């Protein structure tokens, strides 16, 4: 590894852990590691035309079109940088390639900072880990609904919450029911009055543990078909008589990855927070970036399984991974899923993990 590349990694780490969106600094770092930048962008116009066709993109004015083309070219370079620093995954053009980093965060993330736990949150008991399988996937067992799409709304926390409860409800009743994220967006405003900015706020963000607390207080959640998702904040239309799934308790799982795996196998899919810095350009494979801040959790997702290893030639060994269900539709990642390497809390995937138990409902 040459000194130039090491220097680039150090600089990239500084930016990746910064909370500001500094485009000039990003461009400087990109130029340190991307060789033949002009050659790389030679076919940018062709790529942009294909991008617009594939993702049905249109822009109202020529000025907007030209601006988005400029952002797209910057993201081509960013994707090449990500490929160098995350070689076990495939990075490239995605549905988010015409968005700046700040636009991407504002529109498609939305996990709030970790605050004090709600009143009813428990600590998950320590489980035995001696007989854990090498591979496990709740999708194969019928406990996971199809991938959903949050749209341009920072409601990832609501999808993580419903995904965990959908799995827990399946374990409790044997029935897989798609639950309403819009109910949480419109009706869940749980917060700690002593913590500024702690309230669940629809498209402006929230926290899964707050949402579990809301479900305990409200009596449960209705089906998706009875309270359809709009991707916008609205007035609460919750009808308690239509509740199909409710929470009996929820727990916070320790940082230990074996305990996370044991809770996943025993209790169903888990609500987790993650740093989504590498997800804007992710296409497939096991993401295991050299640098990713563990403390900057900004996206709520659902942990549904794990694998014993995907071969990574760059590191001459297999990389165990977590299987993550996302909420950006099936036209992102691996049909809506993300694989992230397991074993050292990459991107903070082990730092905010919750399990929920469902109560059998009358409906």
Structure summarized in a few sentences:
The protein has 363 residues and is of the alpha+beta class. It folds into two domains: 3-85, no CATH class; 121-359, Alpha-Beta Complex (Cathepsin B, Chain A), CATH 3.90.70.
Structure write-up:
Keywords: Disulfide bond, Glycoprotein, Hydrolase, Protease, Signal, Thiol protease, Zymogen. By secondary structure, this protein is α+β, with helices and mostly antiparallel strands. It has 2 domains: 3-85, no CATH class; 121-359, Cysteine proteinases (Cathepsin B, Chain A, Alpha-Beta Complex). The protein contains 10 helices and 10 strands. Strands 1, 2, 3, 4, 5, 6, 7, 8, 9 and 10 form a 10-stranded mixed beta sheet that branches. A hairpin with a 4-residue loop joins strand 7 (299-312) and strand 8. Mean pLDDT is 85; it is low at 3-37.
């Amino acid at each position: 590894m040459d000194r130039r590349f090491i220097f680039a990694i150090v600089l990239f780490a500084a930016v990746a852990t910064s909370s500001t969106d500094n485009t000039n600094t990003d461009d400087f770092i990109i130029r340190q590691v991307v060789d033949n930048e002009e050659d790389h962008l030679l076919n940018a116009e062709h790529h942009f035309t294909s991008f617009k066709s594939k993702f049905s993109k249109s822009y109202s004015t020529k000025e907007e079109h030209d601006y988005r083309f400029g952002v797209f070219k910057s993201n081509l370079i960013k994707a090449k940088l990500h490929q160098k620093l995350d070689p076990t995954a495939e990075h490239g053009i995605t549905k988010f390639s015409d968005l700046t980093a700040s636009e991407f965060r504002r529109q498609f993330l939305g996990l709030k900072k970790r605050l004090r736990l709600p009143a009813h949150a428990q600590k998950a008991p320590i489980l035995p880990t001696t007989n854990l399988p090498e591979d496990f996937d709740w999708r194969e067992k019928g406990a996971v609904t199809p991938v959903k799409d949050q749209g341009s709304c920072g409601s990832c926390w609501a999808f993580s919450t419903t995904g965990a409860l959908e799995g827990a409800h399946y374990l409790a009743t044997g029935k897989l029911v798609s639950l309403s994220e819009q109910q949480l967006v419109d009706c869940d405003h749980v917060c700690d009055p002593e913590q500024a900015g702690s309230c669940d706020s629809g498209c402006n963000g929230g926290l899964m543990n707050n949402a579990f607390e809301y479900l305990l207080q409200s009596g449960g959640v209705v089906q998706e078909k009875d309270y359809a998702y709009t991707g916008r904040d609205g007035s609460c239309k919750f009808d308690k008589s239509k509740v199909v799934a409710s929470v009996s308790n929820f727990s916070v799982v320790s940082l230990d990855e074996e305990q996370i795996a044991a809770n996943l196998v025993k209790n169903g899919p888990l609500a987790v927070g993650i740093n989504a810095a590498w997800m804007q350009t992710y296409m497939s494979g096991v993401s295991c970036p050299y640098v990713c801040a563990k403390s900057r959790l900004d996206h709520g997702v659902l942990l549904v399984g794990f694998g014993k290893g995907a071969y990574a030639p760059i590191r001459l060994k297999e990389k165990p991974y977590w299987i993550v269900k996302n909420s950006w539709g099936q036209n992102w990642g691996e049909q809506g899923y993300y694989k992230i390497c397991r074993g050292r809390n990459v991107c903070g995937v082990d730092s905010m993990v919750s399990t929920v138990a469902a109560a059998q409902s009358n409906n």
